[in-house]
Structures are given as C-alpha cells and as structure tokens.
C-alpha cells in the first residue's frame, strides 16, 4: 500500500530521489552492489553510500507481509467494526484535546479537519503506540529487489539515503511498517523529503517521536495532494428504494442538488453545498450503508488504495467529529474468498481490468461488477452476490 510519508529537512537543499531502474530479482548481494553504484552515480559520496548500505539485508518477513493483506478482504461493516473500537474513539477525543493547538494550526495552514488526521493516526499506529518493528532499510531494499513493484520502492531507498546524509535516518536502527513507512502516521522517505514540517520547533522533523511534527506534516501532505479546505469528505445518507443504482459508485459524480432531486437525504444534519460534485457510495450494495463521497474523498486514495480501508478511515473521521454510528441495513449475502476469486477470474476473462485475482473487492472489481449487473438486468449496485456469479 502507498501511504503518505511526511517530513522535509528544514533549510536544506535536497537531492531529489531519482527514479531508479536497477534490475530486480537475482542474487541479493549483487542487487545491493547495483543500488550502491546507482547512488554514487546520483552524486553521493562513495564512503557515505558504503556506510548506508552496509547493514542492508533481505527480509523474507517483508515478502510474507506483502503477500498476506487478507484484512482487506473483509466487508466494510466487518472491517470498520473491527478497527473503530470504543478505545480508539475515547483516545481520539483525548488526543484531539491534548494537541488542540496543533490541530488548530493544521486547519489554519492546510485546511484539513482534525478528525481526518486523528482517524489516520488511530488506524495507522494507534496514536503512535504501534509503529512497526521492521527495519526500514531492509524492508525497502527487499521490496526494491522483489519484482512485483520495484519502480515504487527503489526511489524510496535513495530518499532514505538522502535522509541519512543529513542525520535523519539510521539504516541499522530505523524501524517502521513492512512497506517502509515511518512514524506515527506511517510515511515513506520520499514524501518525508517533500512535505515535512517541524511542528514543535526543535529544528528536526521526527515523525516517530513528535506528534506535532507528524500531524503538521500530514496536514501539509494532504493539502499538497489536493485537499479542499472547508469541504466535507464523506457523509452518511439515506437513499430511495427506486434510485437508479447504475448511477452509484465513484465513477459517477453529480451535484449535491442533483442527488437531492433524486431523493437522497442526509441521515444526520444537512447535505453539503448544492453545487459540490459528489458520488453515492454503497460499500455493501443498495441494502447496506450508504454515503455521499465529496471531492476530498478522492484524496484518501493517495494515502491507501484499498476501498474498504479508505471508506473506513473517512467514516471514522466523521465519527470523531460527531457523526452517529452508521446504519448497517440488511445487505445481501456477499461472496466468500473462493467465490470472489472465481468472480474476478470470470470478469477478467470478459476483458475487465480487475487487477490481481486476490479475492479483494476493490474499486476496479466493483466497477466491473456494476457494469455486468446492468447488462444482466440485476440491480447495478456493485455488490457481488451468488446470483451474479451464477449468471456469469
């Protein structure tokens, strides 16, 4: 997954991480030598490069974690109920008060509402308590060597090298998530170079130990990714039973006024400004929870590309700002893991790009499901059922 990484080195001219293209796979020691040669070619001193890479090791545990993201196979209701605990709600209120002045600065400078950052802080590291124990350099080098996504991770190694040259990364001791993210809101080194903020004024950007640094940097990153100040991101709604379900999903954006004319209402409070573009999102189909997703919701996918995670994080943010618990409704029975893989295989054979056959109901699979539902005369709500699978 691709999380934001935060933190820039204050007052320094930085070498921007190059887009490396070192051949993946093969002997790991040879790969390390290739990365070292590339680092020197980028202008780094050879002795600095040697010191940075000397402890690099291949980590089978990182590959195992990369291949085992089964948590995202849960439905929205199951996943959200599992991760949004009463303890996390209580701690959200506690930390929201403790760092109120920091959240005020984030809102003033970057336009990001405090519930948004609190939710990420909670879901990523339990407010900084569980930041991961994978050696960051080993994680990045292992994923750079692996041939699944080397183009994503190789530049992160050189970004970490740049942090190292300024004393802000210890290749032997820096630890974090399995995918190389660092700190309280789990950020990648390249993003650390671009958007870091010294939130506590100590002259350093320390995302592992300083909540002000992490929160201010997170706000800056969201702003850079297009967050729109003063606008909502997700809102629970009530939808009429005769809604044109083929119009739902992130691919369709109508104005709030147009949705209201179609019978969509806010479950609590009022809908956003009438001219705002928005999508009706049904994580578990027409009989489950329903939300209106505003432009800021799209920014969430720059943080994490899992539909279930993103929807949960956005909903959690609304809860932390006073929204009620969602109405789970009575969703139709979904598919189990084997059935989901069968469905993805069938969709792929029909020419749809559903990504990996992984059993995860992501955005591309949902889009394909909606199209096939409409073709087969089923309610096109993007929630796959046994009836759809049998018709395919």
What would your notes on this structure say?
- It is built from 17 helices and seven strands.
- The chain has helices spanning 28-41, 46-53, 60-66, 76-83, 86-98, 100-110, 114-125, 136-145, 150-165, 189-195, 211-224, 256-261, 295-303, 307-320, 337-349, 363-375, 386-391, and strands spanning 134-135, 175-176, 234-238, 254-255, 265-266, 277-281, 291-293.
- By secondary structure, the protein is mainly alpha-helical.
- 47% of the residues are buried.
- The strands form two sheets. Strands 4-6-7-3-5 form a five-stranded antiparallel β-sheet. A two-stranded antiparallel ribbon has the order 1-2.
- Among the domains are: 234-239 and 248-320, no CATH class; 337-391, no CATH class.
- The chain is globular.
- One of its GO terms (biological process) is peptidoglycan catabolic process.
């Amino acid at each position: 997954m691709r999380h934001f990484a935060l933190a820039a080195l204050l007052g320094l001219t930085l070498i921007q991480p190059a887009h490396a293209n070192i051949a993946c796979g093969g002997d790991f020691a040879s790969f390390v030598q290739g990365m070292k040669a590339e680092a020197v070619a980028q202008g780094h001193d050879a002795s600095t490069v040697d010191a940075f890479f000397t402890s690099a090791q291949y980590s089978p545990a990182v590959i195992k974690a990369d291949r085992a993201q089964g948590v995202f196979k849960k439905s929205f209701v199951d996943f959200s109920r599992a991760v949004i605990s009463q303890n996390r709600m209580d701690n959200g209120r506690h930390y929201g008060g403790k760092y109120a002045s920091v959240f005020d600065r984030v809102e003033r400078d970057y336009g990001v509402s405090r519930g948004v950052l609190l939710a990420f802080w909670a879901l990523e590291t339990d407010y900084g308590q569980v930041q991961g124990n994978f050696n960051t350099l080993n994680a990045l080098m292992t994923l750079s060597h692996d041939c699944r996504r080397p183009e994503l991770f190789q530049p992160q190694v050189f970004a970490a090298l740049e942090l190292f040259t300024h004393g802000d990364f210890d290749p032997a001791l820096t630890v974090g998530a399995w995918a190389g993210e660092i700190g309280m809101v789990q950020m990648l080194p390249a993003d650390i170079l671009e958007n870091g903020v010294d939130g506590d004024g100590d002259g350093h950007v320390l995302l592992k130990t300083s909540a002000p640094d992490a929160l201010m940097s997170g706000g800056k990153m969201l702003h850079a990714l297009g967050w729109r100040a003063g606008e909502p991101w997700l809102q629970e709604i009530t939808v009429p039973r005769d809604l044109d379900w083929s119009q739902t999903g992130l691919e369709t954006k109508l104005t709030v006024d147009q949705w209201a004319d179609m019978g969509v209402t806010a479950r609590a409070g009022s809908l956003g400004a009438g001219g705002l573009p928005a999508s009706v999102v049904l994580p578990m189909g027409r009989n489950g929870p329903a939300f209106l997703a505003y432009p800021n919701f799209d920014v969430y996918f720059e943080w994490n590309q899992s539909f279930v995670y993103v929807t949960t994080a956005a909903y959690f943010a609304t809860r932390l700002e006073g929204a009620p618990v969602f109405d789970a409704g009575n969703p139709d029975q979904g598919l189990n893991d084997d059935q989901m893989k069968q469905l993805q295989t069938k969709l792929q054979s029909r020419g749809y790009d559903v990504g990996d056959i992984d059993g995860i109901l992501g955005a591309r699979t949902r889009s394909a499901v909606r199209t096939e539902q409409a073709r087969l005369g089923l309610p096109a709500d993007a929630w796959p059922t046994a009836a759809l699978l049998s018709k395919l």
